[in-house]
Amino acid sequence: MWIKEEQILMKEQANYTNLCASLRLFEDKVGLMRLKGRFANSSLEYEEQHPVILRSKDSSYFTRLIILEAHEATMHHGIETTLARIRRNYWIVKGRKSVKEVIRKCVICTRYQGQPVRAPSSPDLPEYRVDHMAYAFQFTGLDFAGPLFIKDGSKSKKCYILLLTCASSRAIHLELVPDMSIHGFLRGFKRFVSRRGVPELVISDNFKTFRSSEVKKFMLLQGVRQRFILPASPWWGGFYERLVRTVKACLKKALGKAFVTFEELQTILCDIEVAVNNRPLAYVSEDDLDEALTPFHLMYGRSVSTGKQFRSVDCVAISSLDSRKQRLWHLRKVLKDFWKRFRTNYLNELRQTNLYRKVKSNNDNNITVDDVVLIKDDEPAPRTQWRIGRVLELRLIPFEIRDKSTINSANDVDAEEDSENDEVPKGIVVQDDVINARPKRKAAVEGQAMRRIREQYT
């Protein structure tokens, strides 16, 4: 009998004597070891009064099967319900821990309740975010925001915001464009270049307008390098996505339910641009006598105020200087001082990684090769309809983010990094086994994937 064999192996363990004393074990008429317990006078069945003792899941495959049977009998309920079901007939050493480990690997429970892969630890900031002493908007990130609805006569019309932000000074430039077409983007970008200067590097997502041949040709003629983030990974462009959120919050509070024209919205965006560029970049102490460091200080060497005349304490009247060259030297010195404050104040705050410190160290669920995963698409769908994939390989990405995943599902291979990027990133590849095979029904594909998952945990 399998149970007797399990108990014979348990008697050979070093801690069996202590186990007998603590659980008051005894041998019944058929030779099974049971718990004495304190329910002899109760109306419970004999098996519930004196359950059979079993080894832990780590030591016994039979115990694992008992836990799986009880878990399925309780319709995949949690630890408490499964453990209560087991203790009607059996008492498992370290039962709660064993049940928890088995349920954690349950395929059905994982599919419906599994947690997403945790983000990797905070990577090093790229060079253009932390080492910059040239000029604002030398390294620029850009993105579209919208759509916004404006008044066009008696009708409503869509328009979009083109946001451009300096990667180091965190200054923004807003352009209102009628659409996200190639010509609409180029006109907005030309206005930006005419006012802020030509950037050295532009970082953006993989929107088709940004990757079009016309845009690439224009950037090449201007001497601008393009760098694209990983497809379907907007957090790679977090330094401009965060400012998109800031602009949207300001716009929502400024507009409310108002229905404005294109020109009125342009004026509101200019006011928002000034307000965002006047925000302090570092913590302002009550004892700090210096003026708060803002993006405008890194752009112009002074703050920009609306509604009143502003005179910077660092500005010197031209009449008091011997020549305009001295004036130019003075302005350069002012900018240099502000960039020095930028390095000492703002960059020190970027050292903090409190977001990742909050995550428990034992909750490390980073994916590895041959892991079976669920792929959540952009379109909202129930978890039962999510595709199943398998991790093929891990790659090192030297550009901004530490890990990258490529997933091959039943229908296609999720896009890897584009070869036209300036640097080849590092990442992960996930593949489904039905590539280059004849088409299969969706139920057959899912069934094959479920069998692979079961084989992984058996």
What can you tell me about this protein's structure?
One of its GO terms (molecular function) is nucleic acid binding. Residues 119-303 form the Integrase catalytic domain. Keywords: Nucleotidyltransferase, RNA-directed DNA polymerase, Transferase. InterPro entries: DUF5641, Integrase_cat-core, Integrase_H2C2, RNaseH-like_sf, RNaseH_sf. It holds the Pfam family Integrase_H2C2. Residues 306-318, 399-403 and 410-439 have low confidence and may be disordered. This protein is 38% helix and 16% strand. The chain is elongated, with a radius of gyration of 32 Å. The longest helix is centred in the C-terminal third of the chain and has 26 residues, at 324-349. It folds into three domains: 1-113, Endonuclease III, domain 1 (Orthogonal Bundle); 127-284 and 292-353, Ribonuclease H-like superfamily/Ribonuclease H (Nucleotidyltransferase, domain 5, 2-Layer Sandwich); 368-396 and 425-457, no CATH class. With 458 residues, the protein is of the alpha/beta class. The strands form four sheets. A five-stranded mixed beta sheet has the order 7-6-5-8-9, sandwiched between helices. Strands 10, 11, 12 and 13 form a four-stranded mixed beta sheet that branches. The chain has 16 helices and 13 strands.
